[in-house]
Structure formats: structure tokens, C-alpha cells
Amino acid sequence: MNVRPARSADLPRLAPLWRAAWLDGHEGHVPQELMDERGPDHFAVHAERHLHTTLVATDPDDRLLGLIILGDDDGEVIQLAVDASARGQGVGGALLKAAENRFRGRHPQTWLAVVPGNTRARRFYEHHGWRDTGPLTYQAPTSTGTVPVPVHRYVKDL
Ligand SMILES: CC(C)(COP(=O)(O)OP(=O)(O)OC[C@H]1O[C@@H](n2cnc3c(N)ncnc32)[C@H](O)[C@@H]1OP(=O)(O)O)[C@@H](O)C(=O)NCCC(=O)NCCS
Questions:
Q1: Is 92 touching ligand 1 by the criterion CB < 6 Å?
Q2: Which atom of ligand 1 is nearest to the CA of 22?
Q3: What top-level class would CATH report for the domain 2-157?
Q4: What's the rounded Cα separation, in Å, for the pair 43 and 34?
Q5: Where are the domains of the chain?
Q6: What is the average pLDDT across 132-153?
Q7: DSSP 8-state code for residue 30
Q8: Distance 120 CA to ligand 1 centre (A)
């Protein structure tokens, strides 16, 4: 497996992978208002917008296995998504480690928001040394503004 910066040629594969994984992690755990906003267009637009701070994991044939979107300004892991067929093999762990390495020396701490019901992701972060600092309301972006979403803020000291 290889972790590298995303490029524009990845976009047609990146947005659908991200959408499918996002639905796996969020369906039933976020307000319906946000689900209604998260159609294919949202992921296509935002994948392009975040391309310059996205890392992807690929297999030896350059097949896309997962992605991580980084908020360079404040050390946020904005999104982490692994294709369903590639989960449980260390892809998510490799992407998370790449994010931590990128932020180390630039931010004292890295952070992310995870919805309370996404127990698989919460266990995964805890396994990687992240800690739950409690509930927070996250303003999730939509095409018209934001939707408030109850989340937990996880952090890791770098
Ligand atoms: C959460 C998510 C990113 C994890 O990605 P992943 O590639 O499955 O993660 P890993 O394979 O590194 O780790 C998953 C588990 O497999 C285990 N594992 C890792 N490598 C392994 C290997 N080679 N063989 C067997 N098991 C392995 C890990 O111990 C880990 O266990 P844990 O969950 O108890 O920590 C992925 O499930 C996903 O994309 N979910 C949907 C989207 C989502 O919820 N994103 C997070 C939003 S905040």
C-alpha cells in the first residue's frame, strides 16, 4: 500500500468512495437535514475543493483504497474514509499516521469530530491513541450554509 498526495486524476474515483464510506459511518447517526444535503454533488464539489490537502492510499495497481482530508490551519482531520472492500487491513491506520506525521511540528495537537453513533470509528481512533474530550456541536457545511451536528471531539497530542 502507498500513501501519496491526491491529484486531479483521482477525483472521479475519490468522490464516490468518500460518499459510500461517509454513508456507512453516518447513516442513522446524523440529522436527516444533513443526509438530505449529502448527495453525490456535495462529495464531488468538496473532493475538488479539498484536493490540495488530501492524501490517498492506493494498492500496487494504483487502485484507490482510501482518503484522508486534512485541515492544515488547525490540525483537523476533516474526513477519513476507506473503501468497504479494504477495511480491517491497516489502510485507515496508515492514513491516520500520515496525517499525524504531517501535523507534527506544526501543531501541538491534532483533532477530529466523530458522531457518537459511529462506534467503529471511535474504537479505531482510541486504538490509535486518540482520546475523547467530550461532546461538541459541529457546523457541518452544506451548499446553503451549515447544519449543527452533535459530535465528540477527539484529540491526540503530537
Ligand atoms: C473507520 C475506518 C476509517 C477505519 O479504516 P480501516 O482501514 O478499516 O482501519 P484499519 O484496518 O487500520 O483498522 C481497523 C481495525 O482492523 C484492525 N487491523 C488493522 N490492520 C489489520 C490487519 N492487517 N489484519 C487484521 N486486522 C487489522 C485494527 O486493529 C483495527 O481494529 P480497531 O478498530 O479495534 O482499532 C473505516 O472503517 C471507514 O472508512 N469507515 C467508514 C467511514 C467512517 O466512519 N469514517 C470516519 C468518520 S469520523
A1: yes
A2: 42
A3: alpha beta
A4: 13
A5: 2-157
A6: 93
A7: S
A8: 8
